[in-house]
Amino acid sequence: MKILLIQPKLHTHVVTPPLGLGYLASTLINEGHEVKLLDCIAFNIDIFKTIKEFIPDFIGLTVLTISYNVVINLIKDIKASGCTAKIVIGGPHVSALPTQCLKDTHADFCIIGEGEITFKELCSNNNYKEINGLAYFNEGVITVNPQRELIKNINTIPFPAWNIIKPNEYPPTPHGAFYKRFPVAPIITTRGCPYNCTFCASKCIWKQKLRVRSAINVVDEIEYLNSEFGIKEFHFEDDNFTFSKVHVVNVCNEIIKRKLDITWTCPNGVRIDKLDKEIIHTMKQAGCYQLSFGIESGNQKILDSINKHLNLKIVPDIIENIKQEGMTVCGFFIIGLPEDTEKTIEDTINFALSTKFDRVQFNRFIPLPGTEPFDSWYNEQSDFDWDMTCWQSTYKTVNLSNDEISKLQQKAFRKFYLRPKIIFKIIREIKLIQYYWILKRMKDYKM
Which helix (H) or strand (E) holds 233? Predict the structure, then answer.
């Protein structure tokens, strides 16, 4: 089979290799299929020219909530071009809303949840009712098959197909915007998160179960990327890298044992309450120089309302321990959570200002499909638009209008970043080539 995997084009300043499609590609290649992967975010690619030349049997598209409208239009254009390939969609948005996604996109198949085995079986089995984790049209009626069990041993999944992704050809626009060394590549060492924060849709795919790659498996991939592609820095994109102390220490010790000349960070955020001085020191010794944390709110009642299970009182001391190791710290906060008021958002701003963060991110709350707040909010919308981002959202709370939330977000950014000590610190850290991207981001945030 010939399979074309596509990351649709999006307006975003974070441009990183698509790990999900990379894992699909390597799994399918191992089955003997011919696979092409197009990352239309990173590169200016003529999709239709590729389709015409490659003549795929299947076209796979990854779907995020932010890319949903883009995917609908792209599938419409692909079908109008005369392409006869079966179109498969997957990703977090599809896993949360498979029936609606089939209706809206007119794709042939939805893959629900973890995709490697489901896509592999789809390419070899025409009896679709036997394939768990699949939704499809059956004589015009949508059929949703039973969910697929998660892969128990994720060490068995081959590394992403780095040879066709070519991570060393990506622009200097990694997750988190900052980096120390280049080229940079993302990596995940675990799948899933056992927590149940109400704003997070991770459970749509990973079912609140944490599965861990062995330290040897992880560092084998790091060493491969370092030697074959010259990757100097790695960004650990796990949902919960620090949940298991044993796992973190084992990975770090394996990096140290092999004497790898690399740096790394955790830009997706880790649980701050899972860090002690030993873990922090070991991470630093293994090359980690920056940690990000999802604090979400500076008001304890708001944190409790979203099932964050974090005591704000422990945060300053742990950050102090990290700073003593010479590492930088980034905090993630959400503006406009369902029970937020102007006062609770002011608490969040003040907490960010009073704690020793080097950088922060104040994201607008988005009720993602698969989360608790989504259904009630979605049902209230008369004219729904999926084009929401972390700084442009139509969501409003009982206490605050959309405009009031936007103004508070802008205020938060201004108060944190327009301080001399923060400005000088950022100027020292960013590379010359990054200025364009940082200034563009500031413009979009209307700081």
Answer: strand 233-236
Burial 12-23 (b: 16+ CB within 10 A, else e): eeebbbbebbbb
Name the CATH superfamily housing domain 166-445. Answer: tm_1862 like domain (3.80.30.20)
- Distance, in Å, from the CA atom of 210 to the CA atom of 373, rounded to the nearest integer, reads 24
Burial group, residue 385, by CB count within 10 angstroms (0-12, 13-18, 19+): exposed
pTM, entire model: 0.94
Query: Looking at the domain that runs over 2-144, which CATH code has it been given?
Result: 3.40.50.280
Query: What value does the mean pLDDT take over residues 160-173?
Result: 94
Residues of the chain with CATH 3.80.30.20: 166-445
Q: How far apart are the first and last CA of the chain?
A: 50
| 328-335 and 288-296 beta bridge pairing | parallel
- State the chain's maximal CA–CA distance in angstroms: 65
Q: ∠ CA 9-426-352 to the nearest 5 degrees?
A: 90
Residue 158 confidence (pLDDT): 98
Q: Please list the residue range(s) of the chain that carry CATH number 3.40.50.280.
A: 2-144
CB atoms within 10 A of CB 131: 22
pLDDT bracket for residue 10 (50, 70, 90):
confident
Q: State the DSSP string of 270-307.
A: E-GGG--HHHHHHHHHTTEEEEEEEEE-S-HHHHHHTT
Contact 53, 45 (CB under 8 A): no
DSSP state of 66: G
Q: How far is CA 402 from CA 72, 274, 298, 299, 336, in A?
A: 27, 35, 20, 20, 9
Strand segments, DSSP code E, in 112-204 are 134-138, 141-144, 184-187, 190-191
Q: Is the pLDDT of residue 31 over 50?
A: yes
